[in-house]
Write a structure and sequence with these properties.
alpha/beta; Leucine-rich repeat, LRR (right-handed beta-alpha superhelix); 9-stranded mixed sheet; 35% helix
């Protein structure tokens, strides 16, 4: 489905929580409900996206209700160089197949030109998915994860911050993730973990309903 305007998933989030300046972005959005990992169905989808691009540039992409293989996602995003936001239900790394050379080349091309600054991952199964997203969109400044499953909260935050440091990423400054049983004790544990490991300076962490927001100025 293709929309010229509809309220986006991150609209007003930063303004309501941390109140920075918010830039209104172009609104053309493409929504996909199912993506085949390989084969003719994927080729047909890519052809349809090319047709849509004859009508308008796409700035926002949402893939819902399916586990998206990273090779298929690379193929889609390769066609959408103007993307500024990405929402995915969940990723499939498909380790047994890996990436073909053409997909790896496209990933490199995307990472050098990506304009994606905001990513929403509804479910995460493996922390390595964050590695992929950092490679896919090195200028990402906001990451939201709705469900971290059985991953330990402290380990989740520590791994992400360590990956950011390892990749010398200076863009990602705001992390939001949902923890159904979150309370002030969890916030204090996260603060202690961050301080003991000297992962961040000049940061702020807040609990809003069941969502934890972590924002920092620099690593």
């Amino acid at each position: 489905m293709f929309y010229f305007y509809r309220k986006r998933w991150y609209d007003n989030v930063q303004n309501e929580i941390f109140n920075p300046s918010v830039q209104l972005l172009k609104s053309a959005r493409l929504q996909l409900s199912f993506v085949e990992p390989d084969g003719r169905s994927l080729e047909h989808l890519l052809e349809n996206i090319t047709t849509v691009l004859n009508v308008a540039e796409i700035y926002h992409l949402e893939i819902s209700g399916t586990s998206t293989f990273i090779g298929a996602l690379i193929g889609i995003i390769y066609l959408l160089p103007k993307l500024v936001s990405l929402k995915i239900h969940c990723l499939s790394l498909f380790k047994q197949r890996g990436l073909w050379k053409e997909e790896s080349d496209k990933l490199l091309w995307i990472s050098e030109r990506s304009q994606i600054t905001k990513i929403y991952l509804e479910e995460i199964n493996d922390i390595e998915e964050i590695d992929f997203l950092l490679k896919l969109s090195p200028c990402m400044n906001y990451l939201q994860v709705n469900c971290i499953g059985d991953i330990d909260v402290e380990l989740f935050v520590k791994d992400i911050l360590m990956k950011i440091i390892h990749n010398s990423n200076q863009h990602l400054r705001l992390l939001c993730f949902r923890v159904p049983r979150a309370d002030d004790k969890i916030i204090l544990k996260l603060q202690n973990m961050i301080n003991v490991n000297k992962l961040l300076v000049n940061y702020e962490i807040k609990l809003v309903f069941h969502n934890i927001y972590l924002q920092w100025q620099r690593l």
